[in-house]
């Protein structure tokens, strides 16, 4: 195909944004590995904080959620919210047995 | 039927499909946390047996493949089709590397007699058996998703070469990319659950 | 499907493309044709399920007790459950009437993804074939009950793996339909068709689709784990290996309780269409009904563990889930109140669809109220796993969804087939249906209160009389069903032509000819008023 199509850059993020996000992701992973050497407690805290943060970065930038309207954000919100409630209700059983 | 094109509609459909994938793995994460709450010590012991180096290497590979996928779409938006093809091709190749490393890891486990229902696993404490059961189910299902993602992206590559996907119409490529990123997100969770924090 | 002798004016029912006859139907992406494909395949499986059910009841009579062995009896109730749940009530109204009418009701030419829609039907048929195969291959028909409870489902030698895979494939069909409907409602509403101008059936389909998307994957993964367990012995649900059957029950009911709302919500939606049409009056409390659909979908997803009160959960969880169960009764009651209020001071025209819709309300109330009884922990402990439960969920699933399905079919039949049925025959079918239904399932409620456990092949002499009444009820019910179906099948082929708007309805489907043309609308309508405005927008004053 011809490459003479007009560039549709406006509104789209460039290469730099994604490379910066990737660097963040790599750094967070290294921190996670470091925490796991400090002991179980630190590793679990790392799991609970850094992992969702990494996932959020991928959702927000790589998956373009940042540039989408409220509907798609809402869809993801509903899915994650439902999952969280499932966890909470499940633990109303597991944690009190 | 009248041919009409609704790019946002197909993206919405794709996201709704991703919701089902999130909940599918969500069920497994619920099972994991349930069992972990029951066998905290055994999970810790069994987790120490896994090869964290391979797990972390694979994380870097998948993160990088996600990057090349995202860049491939930027290239497409800027009309640099050749770059786009190269970057999407890189994504597929990195997926393949991921699978090879995963294969090495599984093979080592099998070699040590660690696979579901094996004689050795039945001698382990119950909690460790469950850990390995979950490990094989979850990484296995994730592996299947990597294979599916590679299949989808290969089809995208062919469509790009045939000019069916081009800078004027690349929603399909975006949707394929969304799927690939989701596979990456799932691995982001699997890494600490099994290799680091267990 | 229909006689092609009078193809003039037969709209989408007449073949247009290069293909003719059956092939034209099997390759069509027209949502209306897909709806009718679902209708016939579903009714066929429904009748198989009915046959199995009647046979089960027969076995409880002394004379026929030795017709089947105890093991076959176990297979019978499993097959009855799997067919009725996964092949009839879950796809139920959305697949048939949702497919046919959702695009029309919002003023669209088709659903958002027509080819995916056809693929859903093929997934449905593939799942059905796998389910039927599981009966005759491997170790024989599964004998676990439709719930596939671990650990028995892991140990039995019967063909559980294939049956579970069939349910997985059927779940896939259901998810794809859900994705399709949500996208359709978001993207394809006609100009002016705002959210609160949508007919209530669309609202109910919207909330149903969300449950399909959010809950079905959890079932899928549960079934995958059962398969992995049976094939490789991963041990997660197997107590001998350290697994926990309670985890299976949690995961299973996280889907299967919301699935109950997948079954009932579209039924409620159809009733909300029928009530205003035959009262010649706008529906009472439009927004209340619309929001109650959404809140049923929301709260209904949070009550799953009320199936597990006697399974050994924590006391705290028992209380939490009991409370949530009571709360979900509120939006259901709001709907019943609104339907009945719609009749108040209306100009009521008792046609067959309204007749069946009113029956729905009556039977659903019994089903709902017995449900609230079981939501209370103290009662649940006593009636758990008795005929009381069986009676209750048949009141909801059959008296509710089943009768709403019949009512919806009667309501929309002239639109779908362009022909009218014999109203006398349909009313005649109602008497054995209604009497038989209540003998059968109210009898079960009583038997359950007396202590008759469900799924037992034998029963004590004290339950004898009860079982006889119940079995006779099943014959009457089956008779009513046969009359109903024969009347409709005959009408689909030979019935007199129906006019465009036989009931005087004001929603968009009644502005079209019967049956509609392939494109639905020659020109996409512009909507400037609400769905049930009988004076301003409708043809009838």
Q: Kindly state the number of beta strands of chain B.
A: 0
Task: List the chains of the largest interface with their residue counts.
Answer: A-B, 52 and 52 residues
Number of folding domains of chain C? 1
- CATH top level class name of chain C: Mainly Alpha
What is the average per-residue confidence, as pLDDT of chain B, rounded to a whole number? Answer: 93
Beta-strand content estimate of chain B: under 5%
- Any guess at the CATH architecture of chain B? Up-down Bundle
- What number of domains of chain B? 1
With helices defined by DSSP (H or I, 4 residues minimum), what is the helix count of chain C?
Answer: 16
Assembly state (oligomeric):
heterotrimer
Shape of chain C: globular
SSE map:
The complex is a heterotrimer of chains A (97), B (198) and C (541).
Chain A: H1 15-38, H2 40-62, H3 70-94
Helix pairs in contact in A: 1-2
Chain B: H1 7-38, H2 40-49, H3 52-77, H4 81-111, H5 119-123, H6 126-161, H7 171-196
Helix pairs in contact in B: 1-6, 1-7, 2-6, 3-4, 3-7, 4-6, 6-7
Chain C: H1 21-26, H2 31-59, H3 70-89, H4 92-105, H5 114-136, H6 152-155, H7 160-187, H8 200-232, H9 245-279, H10 286-300, H11 315-343, H12 352-375, H13 377-383, H14 387-417, H15 423-450, H16 464-494
